[in-house]
From TrEMBL, chain A:
<comment type="subunit">
    <text>UreD, UreF and UreG form a complex that acts as a GTP-hydrolysis-dependent molecular chaperone, activating the urease apoprotein by helping to assemble the nickel containing metallocenter of UreC. The UreE protein probably delivers the nickel.</text>
</comment>
<feature type="region of interest" description="Disordered">
    <location>
        <begin position="1"/>
        <end position="22"/>
    </location>
</feature>
<protein>
    <recommendedName>
        <fullName>Urease accessory protein UreD</fullName>
    </recommendedName>
</protein>
<dbReference type="InterPro" id="IPR002669">
    <property type="entry name" value="UreD"/>
</dbReference>
<keyword id="KW-0963">Cytoplasm</keyword>
<dbReference type="Pfam" id="PF01774">
    <property type="entry name" value="UreD"/>
</dbReference>
<dbReference type="GO" id="GO:0016151">
    <property type="term" value="F:nickel cation binding"/>
</dbReference>
<feature type="compositionally biased region" description="Basic and acidic residues">
    <location>
        <begin position="1"/>
        <end position="12"/>
    </location>
</feature>
<keyword id="KW-0996">Nickel insertion</keyword>
Automatic annotation (TrEMBL), chain B:
<dbReference type="InterPro" id="IPR038277">
    <property type="entry name" value="UreF_sf"/>
</dbReference>
<dbReference type="Pfam" id="PF01730">
    <property type="entry name" value="UreF"/>
</dbReference>
<keyword id="KW-0143">Chaperone</keyword>
<dbReference type="GO" id="GO:0005737">
    <property type="term" value="C:cytoplasm"/>
</dbReference>
<comment type="subunit">
    <text>UreD, UreF and UreG form a complex that acts as a GTP-hydrolysis-dependent molecular chaperone, activating the urease apoprotein by helping to assemble the nickel containing metallocenter of UreC. The UreE protein probably delivers the nickel.</text>
</comment>
<protein>
    <recommendedName>
        <fullName>Urease accessory protein UreF</fullName>
    </recommendedName>
</protein>
<dbReference type="InterPro" id="IPR002639">
    <property type="entry name" value="UreF"/>
</dbReference>
<comment type="function">
    <text>Required for maturation of urease via the functional incorporation of the urease nickel metallocenter.</text>
</comment>
<keyword id="KW-0963">Cytoplasm</keyword>
Length: 302, 246
């Protein structure tokens, strides 16, 4: 249970606004994708504001049968007391792309915390790209996210997280002024066999995130998990060249996950744009190895 | 300084340390970086950090050592504490659970190889030289593939067999992380023994507050955050010129 996490003990006071987890603060999304006659369809759509999904669009010119879903929030971000749940379920051989409409802002907090639970379930042969836009934890925010991946050995998931240091250009600049950012990603097989766990608990006011070896001088962190059959992972690993370019302020590298589960790709840079660009290039490699087509160029307005 | 003051004011009467002499010497033996378990062949990403110019002298080496120790404290250090508790209770299922969780949180091949190689060698050594039931049983399980055999679990079982308490086990582990980084630095960069020993003395002072932070942590609370070291490890795995293993 997220609510029992030790890092939340200091944040159990109720917000003076709506009670935590009450109506309007318990957003829920369930997206169920199934193969249709010619293309995958979004068969199941349950939504409870403030998270909203309208319908699947087919905007990807390289994969015209790929349902693309944009998650929208009508709350202007994540607020204290929010308890979001997002479930994405792909049946056998379904394919889907899920993103967010804009950056996710974790708003300033003076009481309680916000949580988000994500459950990603991938059936045999399915393929999911879950590439949300960056997360911006504002000053004094407290956020905990748990992502559980249940994936068939023949399926592929590419899931990315981009973490900003805060509102970098707001007033004097907010660099690591949030109180808590806790993230746990665990993956396992439908048989119950566990694959890997990545957990970090960031408390910039207690621990120096700028320490050499942690963020160092970098501001933006991108983390991409690719769970895929070993042959794909081998091919992607061989093709990837790690970079540590201090002059241009970017570093990235790929590593193999335990139990031949796939790869993890980490990116550090000063701004979100180079991180997103680097992740897009890697995502395109993943798509080409796993499905065939490349990822189209970014929209001009994106 | 505090120690010498105590000694003079008590006119040579010693304060009991709460630890017998053999117990102290066991800790020295198993905390020694010369213990032949293979720790000297791994640099924890330091080799790449030096090649990239991130670590270039005493100040940056100290920072790198501190980060490595902090990551170890909140990650493997929690495993040492939990595994020590399980070893004392003789709870093999809990030890296997902890061992698997530690392995599954090593997200690059270098740290995975390092933890299982050192864990296996340490357990092999202790199963022969301590020769008690617990270390022998655990080594059989590692050999048969019943459990991955990560280093923090082997260390906890070994030190529990020697009667060391949890705090001491955590301390030995932290000391091992610091000396591994610093002894690699002596072979990889221009730095003096005096500098590395000064850093070691400084960073070991931070082990007690680190222990206080994690002393009652459960195994699911293991966490670490070192994206820069992770990327340096990826650079190291693909590196063509290197002295240390991956």
């Amino acid at each position: 249970m997220i609510s029992g996490a030790r890092e939340l003990r200091a944040y159990q006071d109720e917000p003076p606004q709506l009670p935590s987890g009450s109506f309007g603060k318990n957003a829920y999304l369930r997206l169920g994708f199934e193969p249709g006659a010619h293309r995958t369809v979004l068969r199941t759509l349950h939504r409870r504001a403030p998270l909203i999904v309208q319908q699947a669009l087919y905007w990807d010119e390289e994969m015209p049968g790929l349902p693309c879903v944009s998650i929208i929030s009508n709350a202007g971000g994540i607020l204290q007391g929010d308890r979001n749940v997002i479930e994405i379920d792909l049946q056998a051989d379904a394919q889907a792309h899920v993103t967010t409409q804009s950056a996710t802002r974790i708003q300033e907090m003076d009481a309680n915390y916000a949580s988000q639970t994500q459950l990603l379930t991938l059936g045999p042969g399915s393929y999911l790209e879950y590439i949300p836009r960056p997360i911006i934890p504002h000053r004094n925010s407290r956020f905990i996210q748990t992502t559980k991946i249940d994936i068939d050995p023949t399926a592929t998931l590419i899931y990315s997280e981009i973490m900003m240091p805060g509102r970098k250009y707001y007033r004097d600049g907010e660099i690591f002024e949030y109180e808590l950012f806790s993230s746990t990603v665990t993956a396992g097989r439908p048989s119950g066999e566990s694959l890997f766990t990545e957990k970090f608990v960031l408390r910039p006011k207690l621990d120096r995130l700028h320490a050499l070896g942690a963020m160092g001088d970098f501001h933006v962190f991108g983390n991409v998990v690719v769970v895929t059959p070993k042959a794909n992972a081998d091919q992607l690993f061989e093709a990837n060249t790690p970079v540590f370019d201090r002059e241009n302020g970017i570093a990235h590298g790929v590593s193999r996950l335990p139990h031949d589960a796939g790869l993890v790709f980490k990116v550090l840079a000063m701004e979100s744009a180079p991180v997103m660009e680097t992740i897009r290039a890697f995502w395109s490699e993943v798509r080409q190895v796993v499905v065939g087509p490349r990822v189209p160029d970014n929209f001009l307005w994106a | 300084m505090a120690m010498s003051t105590t000694m003079t004011t008590t006119m040579g009467i010693e304060r009991p340390s709460g630890r017998t002499l053999p117990e102290l010497l066991y800790l020295l033996q198993f905390g020694d970086s010369a213990l032949p378990v293979g720790g000297f062949s791994f640099s924890n990403g330091l080799e790449s950090a030096i090649q990239e110019g991130l670590v270039d002298g005493p100040a940056t080496l100290r920072a790198y050592t501190e980060t490595s120790m902090w990551q170890a404290a909140t990650g493997d250090g929690v495993a040492v504490i939990c595994a020590h508790r399980a070893a004392q209770a003789g709870d093999i299922d809990a030890l296997k659970h902890i061992d698997r969780l530690v392995f599954e949180r090593k997200l690059n091949e270098e740290t995975r190889l390092m933890t299982v190689r050192m864990g296996r060698k340490l357990c092999e050594l202790s199963s022969v030289i301590i020769a008690d039931g617990a270390t022998r049983d655990w080594f059989e399980r590692i050999k048969s593939g019943d459990t991955p055999g990560t280093h923090p679990v082997s260390l906890a079982i070994t030190l529990a067999a020697l009667g060391a308490n949890r705090q001491d086990a955590f301390g030995v582990h932290q000391y091992g992380v610091a000396t591994a980084v610093l002894s690699a630095a002596l072979r990889l960069m221009r730095i003096s023994f005096v500098d590395t020993q000064k850093i070691l003395l400084d960073v070991t002072a931070q082990v007690a507050p680190a222990y206080a932070r994690v002393t009652d942590a459960t195994i699911d609370e293991m966490a670490s955050f070192a994206p820069m070291i992770d990327i340096l490890a990826a650079v190291h795995v693909k590196g063509h010129v290197r002295m240390f293993m991956n």
